[in-house]
Task: inverse folding
């Protein structure tokens, strides 16, 4: 493997690498880097020889093992457009529906104008994706897809008083836009910070649940302030759920969105789309909805 790296420092605490890599990759893996050429060898069909050069964008891509059938949130980085697959619709109020879809916020295509739509990114408190130690790959891809304009907008968000890097409290949300943020599908980006359950003792989990509900609710409040009609949200805290089960965390998120819709019957927000990266999360959200007394529109029609 040959790697050549040139580091360019553009703004405070943001270092942009330019990388050229020559490497053999297994066919079971794919890279979000722009592949300039790729071919498999007849002698060894298991490997492909790839020459990869990072585009000189403000934020670098991050290599990530990919299985397309389960990790749809990486599709746009590979120029593979796979629209959201709607699997259930809950009519919470006469005006607002919660839609469960298989895919990611990067797959979202607004039914109306991008100017009245937003995506909710599960952010960390700095609102800047961590490409060094971070494991939230979707957050990294959102920042990369948003390009220089998204990063510039985030850097303009004031720091929380008394903090050196944090721009948003846990349980709160910040909205950016309107703007044309690179390849992102909407004019607005909402950075919502859900809690990391791992950082709290189990005895405090009920309080942490409130922070998770607040993060979802705050995201919708930001959308309401801008009169948005459609919002696609990622699932918060699913990777940092600690001793909470996936089903519990998803139930809290669905409850928060439904409660907000019922408390805001005058909102212009008609569609709240919960983007589930795999069918596992989607099925659990639907199951949670039924236990909360919500019946998918599809099943109502069949009944």
Result:
């Amino acid at each position: 493997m040959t790697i050549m790296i040139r580091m360019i420092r553009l703004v405070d605490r943001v270092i942009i690498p330019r990388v050229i890599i020559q490497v053999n990759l297994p066919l079971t893996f794919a890279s979000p880097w722009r592949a300039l050429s790729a071919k498999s060898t007849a002698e060894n069909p298991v490997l492909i020889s790839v020459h990869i050069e990072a585009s000189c964008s403000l934020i670098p891509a991050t290599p990530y093992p990919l299985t397309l059938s389960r990790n749809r949130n990486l599709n746009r980085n590979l120029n593979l457009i796979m629209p959201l697959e709607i699997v259930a619709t809950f009519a919470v109020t006469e005006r607002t529906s919660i839609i469960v879809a298989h895919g990611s916020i990067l797959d979202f295509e607004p039914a109306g104008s991008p100017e009245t739509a937003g995506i909710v990114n599960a952010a960390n408190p700095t609102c800047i994706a961590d490409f060094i130690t971070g494991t939230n790959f979707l957050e990294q891809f959102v920042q990369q897809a948003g390009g220089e304009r998204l990063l510039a907008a985030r850097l303009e968000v004031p720091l929380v008083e008394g903090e050196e890097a944090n721009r948003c409290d846990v349980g709160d949300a910040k909205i950016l836009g309107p703007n044309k943020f690179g390849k992102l599908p909407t004019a607005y980006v909402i950075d919502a910070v859900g809690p990391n359950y791992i950082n709290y003792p189990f005895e405090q989990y009920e309080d942490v649940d409130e922070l998770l509900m607040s993060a979802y609710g705050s995201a919708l409040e930001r959308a309401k302030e801008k009169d948005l009609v459609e919002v696609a949200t990622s699932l918060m805290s699913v990777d940092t759920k600690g001793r909470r089960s996936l089903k519990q965390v998803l139930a809290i998120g669905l409850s928060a969105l439904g409660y907000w819709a019922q408390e805001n019957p005058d909102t212009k927000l008609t569609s709240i789309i919960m983007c589930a990266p795999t069918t596992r999360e989607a099925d659990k959200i639907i199951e949670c909805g039924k236990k909360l007394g919500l019946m998918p529109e599809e099943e109502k029609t069949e009944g």
